[in-house]
């Protein structure tokens, strides 16, 4: 039975020019990667989460898609409809033609992605924030040529950086657009359809226009596996990851083994009683970073946990902290150490500081040596704390790890 509304849009209309040396005349979503196309892998993932209604937007080599969709409709318990673009409409241009067929909240996925994510957690995040636009983001392996967002408070996007502009400028962000979104179709009423000369990608058109209209945009930062196979180098990485079963292992339905890191006096040097308030204050401990790097390969992802009482003291705001942490993340990435998650405690229990923020002056559950930061991440990311490790330099780091049921290693013992 043909369904009335569709809850997923798959964009598969691109030419895939960067990969044509390998794919030849086969569209990227139909090209076999380790024996299976990205399109079929996507349908498999959607079926796992009981999605039933999908619209596929196609243009290039449409006959190939039509034949393959017939095969998919027979094999999977998902109804797939095809929207054929008579002329190229870009990544998101077809949405305005489709809006009457879409659910109020629908998933949008680029068709050249290899991924495995827990859609239940993603939809829960989107719903609890009453979001109209949620971007699935992750720490970018290549921030210099990625679309990035700055998220100082951990969820609300406060700045966007397009990969197509100002490449020479160092972007104050490290969270990259993954190519997966949840949209409420009210956006298609608030934002007019793109014109002929407009960019028609989700990020460069819908995200940009929503941001300019002061519509709240939220970042769902995940450490799960999401990679495009749009270049020969990235295709090789994806092939190797599939062989090692890395793709499904990182899905949050599977327990994650995590390396937690302290920041100050673990990754960067900081005198006792001093605070890092500007990027110029940062002095990296390269010896520690090099020692931590091989340890990180034994864990599913790396999470930075840091107490930042200077926020409650009124000496540091969230945007400046985000800039500092961005600098740390990018420097560590340049040394091979990828930090996937950054989380912090802004509180401090003692009052009496000039300019302090009184609402943040409290004895909280997240400030180390309390275990709140660990437990929050364990809840959101299905972390097995007993198999995880905290590396830090202080008694507070040790006690926080012990209170969370996590293993501990002093950085000075590396």
Note down, in words, how this protein is organized.
The protein is an alpha/beta fold and 414 residues long. It contains 13 helices and 18 strands. Strands 1, 4, 5, 6, 8, 9, 10, 11 and 12 form a 9-stranded mixed β-sheet that branches. A 5-stranded parallel β-sheet has the order 16-15-14-17-18, with helices on both faces. The longest helix is centred in the last third of the chain and has 17 residues, at 318-334. It starts with 5 loop residues before the first strand and ends with a strand. The mean pLDDT is 92.
Write the layout of secondary structure elements.
Elements: E1 6-11, H1 20-23, E2 32-33, E3 36-37, H2 38-48, E4 53-58, H3 62-75, E5 79-84, H4 95-98, E6 102-110, E7 113-116, H5 119-128, E8 133-139, E9 148-150, E10 159-161, E11 175-184, H6 187-190, H7 202-212, E12 218-221, E13 225-228, H8 232-243, H9 246-249, E14 258-261, H10 286-296, E15 301-307, H11 318-334, E16 341-345, H12 372-381, E17 389-392, H13 395-404, E18 407-410
Parallel strand pairs: 1-4, 1-6, 4-5, 8-12, 14-15, 14-17, 15-16, 17-18
Antiparallel strand pairs: 2-3, 6-11, 7-13, 8-11, 9-10, 9-11
Low-confidence stretches: none
- The helix count comes to 13
- Given the helix and strand composition, which structural class is it? alpha/beta
Termini separation comes to 62 Å
Largest β-sheet summary? 9 strands, mixed
Backbone CA Rg: 22 Å
Helical percentage = 25-40%
Strand content: 15-25%
| Overall pLDDT level | 92
User: Can you count the beta strands?
Assistant: 18
State the shape.
globular
Question: Notable features of this structure?
Answer:
nine-stranded mixed beta sheet, 29% helix, single chain, 414 residues, five-stranded parallel beta sheet, alpha/beta, globular, 13 helices
């Amino acid at each position: 039975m043909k369904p009335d509304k569709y809850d997923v849009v798959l964009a598969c209309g691109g030419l895939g020019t960067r990969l044509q040396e390998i794919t030849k005349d086969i569209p990227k979503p139909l090209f076999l990667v380790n024996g299976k196309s990205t399109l079929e892998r996507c349908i498999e993932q959607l079926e796992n989460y009981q999605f039933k209604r999908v619209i596929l937007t196609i243009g290039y080599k449409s006959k190939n898609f039509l034949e393959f969709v017939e095969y998919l409709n027979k094999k999977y318990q998902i109804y797939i409809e095809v929207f054929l673009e008579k002329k190229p409409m870009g990544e998101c241009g077809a949405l305005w033609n489709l809006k009457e067929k879409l659910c109020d909240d629908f998933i949008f996925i680029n068709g050249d992605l290899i991924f495995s994510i827990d859609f239940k957690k993603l939809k829960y995040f989107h719903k609890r924030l009453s979001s109209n636009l949620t971007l699935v983001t992750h720490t970018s392996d290549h921030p210099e040529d990625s679309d990035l967002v700055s998220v100082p408070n951990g969820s609300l996007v406060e700045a966007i950086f397009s990969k197509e502009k100002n490449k020479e400028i160092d972007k104050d962000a490290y969270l990259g657009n993954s190519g997966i979104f949840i949209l409420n179709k009210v956006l298609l009423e608030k934002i007019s359809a793109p014109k002929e000369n407009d960019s028609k990608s989700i990020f460069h058109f819908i995200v940009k226009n929503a941001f300019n209209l002061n519509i709240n945009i939220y970042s769902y930062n995940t450490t799960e596996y999401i990679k495009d196979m749009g270049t020969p180098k990235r295709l090789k990485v994806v092939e190797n990851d599939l062989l090692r079963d890395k793709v499904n292992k990182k899905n949050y339905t599977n327990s994650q083994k995590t390396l937690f890191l302290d920041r100050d006096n673990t990754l960067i040097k900081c005198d006792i009683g001093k605070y890092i308030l500007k990027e110029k204050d940062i002095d990296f401990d390269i010896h520690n970073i090099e020692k931590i790097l091989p340890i990180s390969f034994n864990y599913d992802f790396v999470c930075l946990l840091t107490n930042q009482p200077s926020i409650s003291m009124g000496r540091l705001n969230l945007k400046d902290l985000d800039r500092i942490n961005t600098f740390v993340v990018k420097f560590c990435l340049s040394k091979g150490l990828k930090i996937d998650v950054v989380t912090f405690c802004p509180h401090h229990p003692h009052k009496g500081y000039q300019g302090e923020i009184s609402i943040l002056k409290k004895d909280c559950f997240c400030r180390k040596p309390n275990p709140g930061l660990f437990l929050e991440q364990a809840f959101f990311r299905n972390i097995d704390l007993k198999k995880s490790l905290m590396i830090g330099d202080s008694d507070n780091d040790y006690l926080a790890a012990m209170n969370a049921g996590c293993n501990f290693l002093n950085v000075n013992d590396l």
